[in-house]
Amino acid sequence: MTDWLLVLAGAFVGAPVRYLLGVHAKYRLGGSFPWGTLAANAAACLVLGFVAQGATDGDLGPHLHLLLATGFCGALSTWSTFSYELLTLTSARRLAVAGGYLLLSLGAGVGLSFAGAAVADAVF
Question: What is the pTM of this model?
Fold first, then answer.
């Protein structure tokens, strides 16, 4: 039961953070590019890289892993919205924007995962 509550607690924070990132990005940058989803996914990759490295090194226990990786990052990141936005851009024939979104999302996600792992190595 404790594991389930940890995941729920992480998601309770991660989902509103994702929503607020989207609202803030739309307000600050406009709605022509999915900046909010990109920011949420990138932030989740950074945190997840940190948590995964910390767990691998044995410095973060299984409870923190459930809270942060499964709960928080699971609610913060969104593959379905990324896919939907990519499909929408492609359907609207905004192929350069769709390609840029795809490359930026993948590059930022992978790069920030490694950056998070490097930070964990430095911290622990």
Answer: 0.93
